[in-house]
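Quick one: structure tokens for this chain, please?
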Amino acid sequence: MSTGENAGYRYLDTAQQIIADIRATQMDALEQAAQWCAETIAQRGLVHLFGTGHSRIPIEEMFPRHGSFPGWHPIVELSMTFHTQVVGANGQRQAMYIEKMEGLGEEILKNFVFRPSDIFIVFSNSGVNNVVMDVALGARQRGMKVIAVVSGAHTEATAPRHKSGLKLPDVADLTLDNCTPAGDALVTVEGLDYPVGPGSTIGYAALVNALKCRVAELLAEWGQPPLVLTSSVLIGAEKSAELFEATYDDYRDRVKVAYGC
């Protein structure tokens, strides 16, 4: 086997194809999502972000980190996303059990104050777990637009679990497909019964960063350039620290409404 044919190369080739598929199929939907999100952020509203399991990764990718800006509101429950313990207290078995508990999503939403002009983005590779369904349905009931981010292939291959009989795309006003195959893992290896190397992280990260960049562009075009968290490598330590404080002050002022402050 040549080095160009080994499993590492095959993973990278497939990851590149995911991004190519997103570019080829998702840009119209992404443009609509960007318009909605930019309008909300321009009005000092919030784009709420929710996911369980490894679908917390795109939420952290959105905000806060360098190259991101206020207006995105991460909502993540540690009980369903803190996977590094694996076994014992806070173990993976408990997390996977909890994310299937119908009704829990509504209890999470009760902790916040939402405005109908806000947007809710719900991430779920499968698009069927009960907590994300509760959150999406609850967001719609509160008058918010819902954007689903799923693996279209995985969602199509998975039966609904929620009592409504619906899947996440059925509830959403708009769906973005991370273009990952059903089952998520990308690479078949000789001697293994099942594929390895999940790809949803690649698809998620490509989608949310493309969305973030387009929203920033729209805000700048509208004369409301966002405060972007920026590394000291680019602008120096003093300016970076000043921008850090200003960005988090702006974020605090936006989310205080959501927390009833």
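Strands lie at 47-51, 72-75, 119-123, 145-150, 174-177, 185-187, 196-198.
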